[in-house]
Design goal:
Low-confidence stretches: 277-282
Distance between the termini: 69 Å
Shape: elongated
Order of helices and strands: HEEHHHHEEHHEEEEHEEHEEEEHHHHHHH
Number of domains: 3
Structural class: alpha+beta
Strand content: 15-25%
Number of helices: 16
Length: 438
C-alpha cells in the first residue's frame, strides 16, 4: 500500500473508531435513539417451506443523518475529508451522478466517508464494538471502486422449472448456471413480497439461476444512456443461455426477474431487481432437467452456439426466433403456427412456395428419418402438422393436444441441431439442395 493510501486508511479507521466511541457514550447517557421500521423476514426451512416472521429493523442511517453535523465536525472526519478531497480519483465521485448504463446515484462526501461507519452499525453488534475485519473489507472495496474506470456487475436470473444434480455448470468466464443459496432465496422472497413480481411463496420452487458477472463502464456526471450497449448485451447473453437450453432438450425453462448487484460493496445503490428480457410470460409445464452426462454435453453444445449471431437476418434467425416465441404462447394453436413458420423457414427456398407442403415434408423426412419406414412416417406427420396449421390460420377447427405440439417441438429441436453446424459452411439453398439430391 502506498504511503498516501496508508495515510488515508489510518485516518478513515481513526474516524470510525472515534465515531463508535461517541455513539457508545451517547447510548450510556441515554441520548442515542435508534428508530425502527416494522419488517417481515422470510426464512427457508429444512423441509423447503418458507417461514414468515416480523421484527423491528434498526434504521442506523437515520441515526447518522441526525448526528451528521456533530460527526462531520470531528477532527478525525475532517482528516479523512481532506485526504479524500486531495485524491482526484476519489473526489471526482463526490456530489456527482455515478453509475452504469442502466442506473446512476448521487452521493455526497459525507455519504462516502460515513459508509464504513454505517457498515459497522449494520452488522448488528449490541456493544457497538469496532470490527477490524469488516472495516478492512469495506474500505478495500471502496478504494477498488474509486480506482477503477469500470464497475463489475452481477446479474442473477433465477430459473423457473429447472433442476440438476450438479451444483454449477460453468459456461464461460463470468457465466454459470448454479444452485441458489438459502440467503439468496430469502432475499428474493422479500423482494417478491414488496414488489409483487411473483408470489413470494413460490420462491422456494426456484432452485437454480443463471449468474453473469460483467465489467461495465463507470459513468460519472451524466444520466444513463437509454440504449446502453451494456444493458443490451446483458439481455442478449441471458437470453442466449435460455435459447441454448431450449434447443438442447425439451422442458419449459424460463426466467422472469433479474437481481442486479455490484460485486464490490460500495456506497449508493447500484443494485436492484427488474423484470426484462424476452422470457417473461411463463407458463409452467414440463420440468427441465440436466443430469449426469447431460451437463457436460450441454457445455459442449453451448460452446458451439455462444458466438453465433442470431440477430443477423437469415432464415435460420427467423426459425430460431419463432421456436423461442412458442415458449411464451398460451394457446396450442399459437404454438403450432410458430413452429410451422420455423419449419418453413428452415426447409423452404424462397422460390418454392407453390409446392411448399410436398418439398417441406420430404426434406424434414430425409433429414430426420433413419430408414425408409421412418422417413415415410415423418413425411406423413409433417403434412398433418401443416394441415392443422392451415386450419388454424384460416379460422377452421382442429384438434390439438400437448403431445402433438411437444412432438413437433422435438422435431424442430432435432433439425436445429443437425442443420446449424452445416450452415457454418453452406448457404441454406446449398444445404437444401444436398437434402434433395444426396
Amino acid at each position: 500500500m502506498s504511503n498516501r493510501k496508508q495515510e488515508l486508511h489510518d485516518a478513515w479507521m481513526s474516524f470510525v473508531v472515534a465515531a463508535l466511541h461517541l455513539l457508545k457514550k451517547k447510548r450510556a447517557e441515554g441520548s442515542l435513539k435508534v428508530p425502527t421500521l416494522p419488517r417481515e423476514k422470510y426464512t427457508v426451512e429444512r423441509d423447503g417451506g418458507l417461514k414468515t416472521s416480523h421484527f423491528n429493523e434498526p434504521q442506523f442511517y437515520l441515526v447518522l443523518y441526525g448526528l451528521r453535523e456533530e460527526l462531520s465536525n470531528m477532527e478525525e472526519y475532517k482528516g479523512v475529508a481532506k485526504l479524500a478531497g486531495q485524491d482526484p480519483r476519489i473526489s471526482k465521485h463526490f456530489d456527482q451522478l455515478v453509475g452504469t448504463g442502466s442506473v446512476v446515484v448521487l452521493r455526497s462526501l459525507w455519504e462516502y466517508v460515513s459508509f464504513p461507519l454505517l457498515k459497522q452499525l449494520l452488522k448488528g453488534s449490541e456493544q457497538l464494538d469496532f470490527d477490524p475485519g469488516l472495516f478492512e473489507r469495506t474500505l478495500s472495496d471502496m478504494l477498488g471502486y474509486f480506482d477503477s474506470e469500470t464497475v463489475t456487475m452481477r446479474y442473477l436470473a433465477p430459473l423457473q422449472n429447472f433442476e440438476s444434480d450438479s451444483d454449477s455448470i460453468d459456461l464461460a468466464q463470468g457465466l454459470t448456471i448454479r444452485k441458489l443459496r438459502t440467503e439468496e432465496l430469502e432475499d428474493l422472497a422479500s423482494i417478491s413480497a414488496e414488489s409483487g413480481m411473483m408470489p413470494f411463496y413460490e420462491v422456494t420452487t426456484l432452485k437454480y439461476a443463471i449468474e453473469l458477472s460483467q465489467e461495465t463502464r463507470k459513468q460519472i456526471g451524466g444520466l444513463p444512456t437509454p440504449a446502453s450497449p451494456e444493458v443490451a448485451q446483458t439481455v442478449e447473453d441471458l437470453g442466449k443461455v435460455i435459447l441454448a437450453l431450449r434447443l438442447f432438450k425439451a422442458g419449459n425453462v424460463a426466467y422472469d426477474m433479474v437481481r442486479v448487484s455490484t460485486v464490490l460493496d460500495v456506497p449508493g445503490s447500484l443494485s436492484g431487481t427488474t423484470s426484462y428480457g424476452p422470457h417473461l410470460r411463463f407458463r409452467p409445464g414440463k420440468k427441465y432437467s440436466l443430469v449426469g452426462s447431460e451437463c457436460g454435453e450441454f457445455r459442449g453444445f453451448w460452446d458451439s452456439l455462444r458466438d453465433r449471431d442470431f440477430d443477423k437476418p437469415s432464415s435460420l434467425t427467423v426459425a430460431i426466433r419463432r421456436f423461442n416465441f412458442a415458449y411464451n404462447r398460451q394457446g396450442l394453436e399459437d404454438k403450432l403456427v410458430d413452429y410451422m413458420i420455423a419449419v418453413e423457414a428452415l426447409f423452404m427456398k424462397k422460390e418454392e412456395r407453390s409446392e411448399l407442403v410436398h418439398r417441406l415434408s420430404l426434406r424434414v423426412a430425409r433429414l430426420l428419418g433413419r430408414d425408409f419406414k421412418e422417413r415415410q412416417d415423418i413425411q406423413k406427420e409433417v403434412k398433418e402438422y401443416y394441415k392443422k396449421r392451415s386450419s388454424v390460420v384460416h379460422g377452421g377447427e382442429t384438434k390439438l393436444t400437448d403431445d402433438v405440439i411437444l412432438q413437433l417441438e422435438e422435431r424442430l429441436r432435432a433439425a436445429f441441431k443437425l442443420l446449424m453446424p452445416s450452415l457454418e459452411d453452406l448457404s441454406q439453398d446449398e444445404l437444401l439442395s444436398h437434402l434433395d439430391l444426396d
